[in-house]
Structure formats: C-alpha cells, structure tokens
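Module 6 notes. Inverse folding takes a fixed backbone as the condition and produces residue identities as the prediction. Think of it as a translation problem where the source language is geometry and the target language is the twenty amino acids. Below is one complete input and output pair. Work through it position by position during the lab.
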C-alpha cells in the first residue's frame, strides 16, 4: 500500500510545499549558471524510469557547454574534485547537491519520487541482470539509499547492489531514515565524489 499509493501522496505533498522555495532558488541560481559561460541554465538528460521507460531528468547545469561524457571502466559517470569539465558555480552546486533540486519538478509530474533509486543513463537498461531489473519496479528518486550513504563515492556495480537492496526493502521507515541521512550527508559534504574512496 505504501509503495503503490501513500508514497505518491507524500511525494505530492512535499513537492507542493517545497515548490515556492525551489522556484525562488531557480531565480537566484539561474543567473550565476548563465553568466559564467552564457550556456543553458538546465541540463536535461534522458534517464531510465520506472518500468524501463525513459524520461527527461532536470538538473542545474554544472558542466561547461559541450563537455565530453567521461565514464569509468564499469560505465558509471566519473565525478572528481579536479574534473576540468565542471564550471566554478557547478562545483559549488554539486558539493551542496543544489544541482539536483530542480528534480522536484520531475517529482510533481510523476516521473520521479523524493526517495528511490538514482536514475541510470539509458544505455544501462540493457546491462541489468535479471536480479537487478527489480529496480525498475520503483521510481527513480532525488535521493535514495545509495545517495544517502555513499553519494558519488562508489562505482556502478556497488550502486546497483544498493539500488537492488532498496527495491527489495522499500518501506515508509526506510524512506524516513534515508531522508534524514541524506541531510547529514549533504551538510557534512560526505562522499561528494568517487575520489573520496581513493587514496
């Protein structure tokens, strides 16, 4: 009942409450993103949604215009402190996770949830094993189990294991735990990128 009904109710209530603050934030952040290199304010990327259906995920643009797509050996996206593709304002937006907040609009229209799995690029859909495809039974989230506890510091294989764990154990209390853990992780800037797990 929670997964199929109340979770969506909570998503709508929280999104409606947060919407005025998000719109104000967009009005404040947008000029900084644009003035740095006169590029688009938002980054729209197609991601794998519930049921394997693609959707367009909204973020503040944190990289330079036409930046190349750099992947790790396992196909996951590279995130590093000294990534030359990231703009100055983009570096701040990433460390504070402000770049993710426009996704509240994705939650409002029903493509995403506040808490779920972090959405993968479309080419990952064909890589999922039968066991991993359970993650397609839940909506992608602005945050989730992997994001709260590991953020960007683990590779794609570990992320998928964490996403499977969430999909198998989804509950109201797990979502509450993830919500507050996410706040702690962001405030203390824990596991900002994959370099945090390298020595």
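Target side of the pair, the amino acids:
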């Amino acid at each position: 009942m929670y997964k199929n009904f109340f979770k969506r109710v909570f998503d709508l209530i929280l999104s409606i409450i947060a919407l005025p603050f998000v719109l104000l934030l967009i009005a404040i952040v947008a000029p900084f993103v644009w003035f740095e290199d006169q590029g688009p304010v938002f980054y729209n990327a197609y991601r794998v949604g519930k049921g394997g259906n693609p959707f367009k995920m909204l973020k503040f643009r944190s990289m330079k215009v036409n930046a190349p797509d750099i992947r790790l050996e396992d196909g996951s996206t590279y995130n590093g402190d000294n990534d030359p593709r990231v703009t100055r304002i983009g570096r701040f937006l990433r460390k504070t996770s402000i770049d993710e907040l426009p996704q509240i609009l994705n939650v409002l229209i029903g493509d995403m949830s506040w808490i779920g799995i972090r959405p993968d690029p479309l080419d990952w859909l064909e890589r999922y094993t039968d066991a991993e495809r359970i993650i397609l039974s839940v909506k992608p989230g602005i945050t989730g189990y992997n994001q709260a506890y590991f953020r960007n510091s683990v590779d794609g294989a570990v992320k998928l294991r964490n996403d499977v764990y969430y999909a198998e154990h989804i509950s109201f209390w797990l979502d509450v735990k993830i919500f507050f853990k996410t706040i702690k992780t962001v405030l203390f800037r824990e596991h900002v990128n994959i370099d945090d797990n390298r020595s």
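Reference fact for the lab report: Strands lie at 42-48, 54-60, 113-115, 141-143.
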